[in-house]
Amino acid sequence: MWLSVGQETGIARNLRVVEWLKADLVASTAAVFRAMAGGSDDKLVDALAGVVITCYVLARRLGIGFSVLDLRVEAKLRQNIDDGHEVERWYGDLSSYLSYFLADRKR
């Protein structure tokens, strides 16, 4: 099947955006590490927010809806809690996040 010029341009643009988002994810992760090494809490929160946003936008560009990603996050949280993940056993962070996540989805 042949693609029209508009379809081909759209596909090429989407591929460029996916590549840009992948690079942005690496850069955002590096920003998290830099902020942890001596930045302010504000810089750390900003960098972490950038990672989260980039992940959601990348998922969308790859054909995964926000709600699908949310459902998988919830499932992974539950699975890690059930599996006794160390962070959960030591601090209860996963249960805490799951409670927040579920309460936020109800709003």
Descriptive account of the structure:
It is a single chain. The protein is mostly helical. It has 2 domains: 1-64; 65-107, no CATH class. It has helices at residues 5-36, 41-61, 66-82, 86-91, 93-106. Helix 1 (5-36) packs antiparallel against helix 2 and helix 3 (66-82) packs antiparallel against helix 5 (93-106). It starts with a helix and ends with a helix.
Q: CA-to-CA gap between the ends?
A: 45 Å
Average residue pLDDT: 92
SS elements, strand count: 0
Helix and strand sequence? HHHHH
Notable characteristics:
84% helix; 5 helices; 107 residues; mainly alpha; 2 domains
Write a concise synopsis of the structure shown.
With 107 residues, the protein is mostly helical.
Task: Give a topology summary.
Blueprint: H1 5-36, H2 41-61, H3 66-82, H4 86-91, H5 93-106
